[in-house]
Amino acid sequence: MYKHGIEVTEKQTTYERPLATAYGVQVIVGTAPVHLTQDPESAVNKPMLVSSWAEAQEKLGYSEDWDKYTLCQSMYASWQMFNVYPAVFINVLDPAKHSKENAAENFPVVSHQVELSQDGILLSSIRVNQGSGSLAGSGKAGTAKAGRAAGGPALSPDKDYIVSVTESGRTLLTMLSTGAGYELEQVSVSYKYLDPSMVTEEDVIGSYDMETGKETGLELARQVYPLFHFSPGLLLAPGWSKLPNVGAALQEKCTELNGVFRCECVLDLDADKNRKYSECGAAKETCGYTSPHSIVCWPELLADGKHMAFSAAYGAMASYYTATNGDVPYIYPSNKLLNADGAVLADGTEITLDQPQAASLNGDGIVTAINDGGWRSWGNNTGCYPKNTDPKDYRIGCRRMFSFVANYFIRQYQQRLDGSMNRRMIDDIINSFNIWGNSLVSLGMCAGLRMEYDEAENSDEELLNGHVQVNIFLAPYTPMEYIQASEEFDMTTLQAAIVGEEA
C-alpha cells in the first residue's frame, strides 16, 4: 500500500523480565482451573514447568477464586508480587474424578447469546440443542435463567455457535449468523463442570499405583529432577498444608528426594482454628510441624483484596531472594517485604502484631508478619525450634544452605561417577569444590566452605569397592536477630558545657 502522512502504532506494554532461579524453585501442589485450558485432561497429575504469567494461564488456567483454585495463589505471588521464575505446578483437580453432570436445561437466548453462570464448565462437554417447551423464568440481558429440558435438534459447535469464556469466568455461547441457532429464543444446554470441593487431602498427598506405576499428587515431586534437571528448592501446598496429614507428607518429602536430594517445605497453620498468636505454638506441636526442613507460617495474608495462604507469598519471596543473590539461598527471608496488604484470620479479622508478640511466635518456631513500612516476614526459625537448637537445623538460612550445598555437590559431580578412580580424580573434585567454596566466602555468602579427604577414613577395602569418603565443612552465617544498646546520662559532658558557658 502506498503511504503518505503520519501514522502512530502502539506496542504491547513490556514488563521487567522475571528473575530466574535454579536452586530456589518452588514445587507447588494444589488445584487449578484447568477447564480454562485447551486440554484439561493433560494438566492433571503432571509436573508442569512454568516460566511466565502467560504460560501459567495457558497451561493451567487462572481464576480469582483462590479458595477453589489454590495454585492460583502461587501464580499470583510468583509473577504479580515477586516476578520470579520458574515454578513447577502439580494440579490434582481431575475432570474425570472431580466433576459433576448438569442435565439438559432450557436457557433463553438474549441478543444471540447464552451466558452460563456455572463455574468450572468443561467446554468440550457442552451439548446444545434447539430448545422447545416452556421456560421457568424470563431471561434478562446478560443472564440465562434455566428451565426444564427439552430435546430439540442438536446444534454443532463452530458451525451453529462458538464457545468463549468471559473475564469473570462465565461461559458464553454465541449463535453464529450462518448457523441454525441464530434466530432461536431458547436452547437446551447440558454440560459437565469441575467441582473443586470434591478434591480431598488424599488427592493432594497422592500415591503410587503398584499395578500401573502411575504417581499422583505430591508423589510427583520425584519426577522434577528427571524431567527438568533441577531439584526442588521449596515444597508447598497453599490452602492444603494447614491440614496435618498434608503437612506431614510435605515434611516427609523434603529428605531424600530421588534418594539423594533435600529441600525445605512451607506450611500454614490453620488461621480459622488458631485465632490467638499465643496458642499457635501448641497448635504447631499438635500438627506435628516440627521437622528441621519445615517453615511454619501464621496467619493468612491479604493480596489484591483476597485471602492468600502465607505459604504462597513466602515461597515466592524466598525464591525471589534466592534468585537476586547469586542463586544461593544464604539470605534469611525475614524482615523482607511480602508485598501483601495485610494479615488476617480466615474470617477476615485483621491481625496486627507488635514485635514482642511476633517474637513470641518466633520463639515457638513460627514465621509471622508485622507491619513496619509495609508488611514483612518475621522469623528465622524452622519448625523444629525450640526443641532442636542445632543451628544447622533450626535457623532457616543455615538449613537452606546445608540443603543447597548438598544438592550442588550431587548435581555438579554426578558426571564424575564411574570414571577411573585415582588420586588425581579425587584431588580434582576436592580442589574444584574448594575453589567454588572460596568464591562463596569471598562474596560474603558464608563464613567458610571447604572439602577435605582423610586417608584414615578411606580403607583399602572401601577404595577397592569404588567407595570414597570426603568431608564438607560449612559455616553459614547466623542472623543478627537482636541488638541491644544502652543509654546513659552523660553528666560530665553536661557539667563541662555549663562551666564552659559561664567562663
Structure description:
This protein is α/β, with parallel strands linked by helices. The protein folds into 2 domains: 19-93 and 199-392; 99-194, no CATH class. 26% of the residues lie in helices and 19% in strands. The chain contains 13 helices and 22 strands. It has helices spanning 53-60, 71-81, 201-205, 224-228, 244-253, 280-287, 310-323, 355-363, 391-394, 396-413, 423-442, 460-464, 491-502, and strands at residues 19-20, 26-30, 48-50, 84-85, 87-91, 99-108, 113-116, 127-130, 154-155, 161-165, 171-175, 186-194, 234-236, 264-268, 294-297, 300-303, 306-308, 342-344, 368-371, 375-378, 448-452, 471-475. Strands 3-5-2-13-14-15 form a 6-stranded mixed sheet, sandwiched between helices. Strands 6-12-8-9 form a 4-stranded antiparallel sheet, with no helix packed on it. A 3-stranded antiparallel sheet has the order 7-11-10, with no helix packed on it. β19 (368-371) and β20 form a beta hairpin. α2 runs parallel beside α7 (310-323). The longest helix is centred in the C-terminal third of the chain and has 20 residues, at 423-442. It is globular, with a radius of gyration of 29 Å. The termini are far apart. The relative contact order is 0.10.
